[in-house]
Amino acid sequence: MAYGREILHGTVQYVRENGPWTVFFEPRSMQDPAPPWLKDWDGDGIITTLYPQFSELIRQTGIPTIDLDDQEPRSGLPTVQSDQLAIGATAAAHLMERGFTRFGYFGYPQFEWSRLRLESFRRAVEAAGFVCEDYEPAHAVSWGHQMPAWEAEIERVARWIDGLPKPLGLMACNDFRGVQALDACRRADVAVPEEVAVIGVDDEILACELAQPSLSSVIPDCRRIGYEAARLLDGVLAGAPPPAATLHVPPLGIAVRQSSDVTAIADPIVADAMRFIREHACRGIRIEDVVGRAGVSRSTLHRRFRASTGGTIHDAIAGMRLDRVKRLLVETDLSLHAVAERVGVAHVEYLIAAFRKSTGATPGAFRRAHRDGASRATRARPQAGGRGPAD
């Protein structure tokens, strides 16, 4: 998974700066048994996640080991891991900044890292005077962190989400749980992000981008985890005493995507209108279409819209189209004519004029500037993803 790969990138960085090391790496899944070569391996040091199926064998080798695990019971070995409490607090702050006052948590109670994230998330929202509801799964999960009977469980999750007060800020313990939450919202016909804003953890980019809508996620600093693990191992091999305390690495921040890129809307009519606009803005809809969906008079919807969002229906339609244009310019090589077609604009000249009025730049200049900026950000900022071993 990307989480483990990013840890390895951090390890590689340390080796480049302080090597030479000869590194033996074998990709493994969390369900795999202990590798047969481990018992007689003559390496100098190990960086790994001490999963139960081979933790005792690693101990028996007597080889200095750095543990990346975040489960109880503690291994007693030098350990580097994500700061789970900081992750929960970061997600809570993100949702509260968007005006949410009702919260839920969708996790895995049998995993300590999930429980710690819940503890911190709940503590943060309760400190602000709010309440957090958490979901109790009916089924256990495997070491693969996948629900073994998700099709049976999803209806229960959908009912849970449907029964919570809205608008709701929902934290999922990781991105794959976040994708399941989005699935449950669709089953319950709950609008994301208008009624429920969802944020995951790990920034598993492919999963987050394939989700509909795309999933916001807390970004763990996995490269620092890998770097610090290599640094600790280097110290132990040089004779330094191992640290007594676990090193907790705080997250980098949040990758904000559509699932939480919203201001909480308490008015259900306006929330539904915003959902309609989000889903249809690029199909050439007009204000009359939104009014027809809302089932109230045009003047009533305008008044409620401005009270809830501070803007007009026209602003919302234009804003959704503009956001789509920006994404297409940065993320694709489509021509301006193709972009205009995909956002429901009949004439590319109108698109150029409207874009320049809103952004102060032509579409071409915007594409060049933001593609260059995205390349620099990718090189400068580590990206992290789902949970996996770093053996």
Automatic annotation (TrEMBL):
<dbReference type="Pfam" id="PF13377">
    <property type="entry name" value="Peripla_BP_3"/>
</dbReference>
<dbReference type="GO" id="GO:0003677">
    <property type="term" value="F:DNA binding"/>
</dbReference>
<dbReference type="InterPro" id="IPR046335">
    <property type="entry name" value="LacI/GalR-like_sensor"/>
</dbReference>
<keyword id="KW-0804">Transcription</keyword>
<dbReference type="InterPro" id="IPR018060">
    <property type="entry name" value="HTH_AraC"/>
</dbReference>
<feature type="region of interest" description="Disordered">
    <location>
        <begin position="363"/>
        <end position="391"/>
    </location>
</feature>
<dbReference type="InterPro" id="IPR028082">
    <property type="entry name" value="Peripla_BP_I"/>
</dbReference>
<keyword id="KW-0238">DNA-binding</keyword>
<dbReference type="InterPro" id="IPR018062">
    <property type="entry name" value="HTH_AraC-typ_CS"/>
</dbReference>
<dbReference type="InterPro" id="IPR009057">
    <property type="entry name" value="Homeodomain-like_sf"/>
</dbReference>
<keyword id="KW-0805">Transcription regulation</keyword>
<protein>
    <submittedName>
        <fullName>DNA-binding transcriptional regulator</fullName>
    </submittedName>
</protein>
<feature type="domain" description="HTH araC/xylS-type">
    <location>
        <begin position="271"/>
        <end position="369"/>
    </location>
</feature>
<dbReference type="Pfam" id="PF12833">
    <property type="entry name" value="HTH_18"/>
</dbReference>
